[in-house]
Design goal:
- This protein has one domain.
- Helices cover 67% and strands 4% of the residues.
- It has 15 helices and 4 strands.
Length: 352
Amino acid sequence: MATIRARGGDSGARPATVALDDGQQATRAGGGGAAWGGVSIAVVSAATFGTSGTFGTSLLDDGWTPATAVLARIGLAVLIVTVPAVLALRGRWGLLRRSAWMAVAYGLVGVAGCQVFYFYAISQMPVGVALLIEYTGSILVVAWLWLRHGQRPRWLTIAGAAAAVGGLALMVVIGGSAEATSTASAGISPAGLLWAALAAVSMAVYFVLSAATAKPAGAGPPQAAPDEQSLPPIALAWAGLCVGTVALGVLQAVHALPFGASASDVTLMRHQVPPIVPIAGIALLSTVLGYSTGIVAARRLGAKLASFIGMAEILFAVIYAWILLGQLPSATQFAGGALILAGVSLVKIDES
């Protein structure tokens, strides 16, 4: 997901699945174990996405352009995940053909679009404001489920959304970096708001598509669709990363996006290392593991709950900056983190 720049220099029963009208799944386990397993996987996804700030900042501070850093990130991720994806699809390549539209949309919007829109947003507005707008994608997921499937949000979800967004505001705008404080009164251009809004839409699409499954024609009623009839998560992540890599490569080849890279050592956690080190870290952790576990979590929990848990990415990014860079969070940020956790808990209770 979005790279957050660091501050300061630097064995139970198989759960039954219910396929929704557009292929989205909401998992309902016979007990609570499977659901909490999905929550754990969603937290792992947020934790791995949260490492992108630590690794990405080392590249951006050394002259890499955002688009080139993202291209290196997802391009290497494609190489890492190709063999597991091919093994997962062995004998089931028809699933990929039937899911081609999903893979293209996932790659263009959920992978490449979300990154590019976010970076354009932060070029024209404070980082904290851009993050706050981007993470309202969770609210867009709730709106989509209401408009598309008639799932009107109940008061617990509304309260949870309000608490989570309030917590985000405390963490990334009010209690955030000195940059956010110094630019709080700076003008925010309409173009910046547009880019941030597009990033929010892209994030919502990412979660909706991650929760979706492609059921072959004639496979029976949605309630009976087994996991073997859905595109494996690792395969969807691989296909989306391939599409995103090609899209970003073409955009940079035609100079629609600036290309910039350096072979010189970069500073990572106060050490000078070759650039391949942060590239490998961001490709393996916040891309391969982040996207793959995010798809698994969304399919188990549904797009709504998974998107709210995804807000924990901000918490982990702050924690990493604290542990690795010595950037102690402010009391306001601690309060914001507590509000985010409270909001996610309310949504989880509403989903139970």
